[in-house]
Amino acid sequence: MTTQTTHVTTTTGTSATASASPSSAIAAAEAARTRLDFAKSARPAFRALIGFDAAAREGLDPALVELIQIRASLLNHCAYCLHMHTNDARKAGESEDRLHLVAVWREARHFFTAKEQAALALTEAVTLVSDGGVPDAVYAEAAAHFDDAELAQVLALICAINTWNRVALATGKVAGTDER
Question: Is the pTM of this model over 0.85?
């Protein structure tokens, strides 16, 4: 096993450099985590969020679900969710090429279907809603690729992943510690 130097920033803002394997660096970062465990401290809200997330996914293509979750997690800088959803996408058969290109999908449109592109654009608009709302053109393009029921599911999924990102960021979740 190769040892590498890892820079760890704790949730209290302090940082340390550790020489360790990735798994021991993850363990050290998790041990340094000082924020509450949302799942334990807000069980009813956590369970409701799990239910909302499951309902939002219902009937959607699993590959599309992961692309949406990856794009939102990238925009929100949520390493915990990004790690989880890229791993989930790989397990579902997603290609490394597409995973690497989600961040720059506009420059690599030929890797994504028109429907996926519409969903990614809507994901960006909803995730970054404070930057100018959801433009009519973005909404219209998504509506052209999804029927009303599917579009409602996509919107629900975008809302769900944005909520998960905010919970993970606010509670200092550490990438690589997914317990599912």
Answer: no
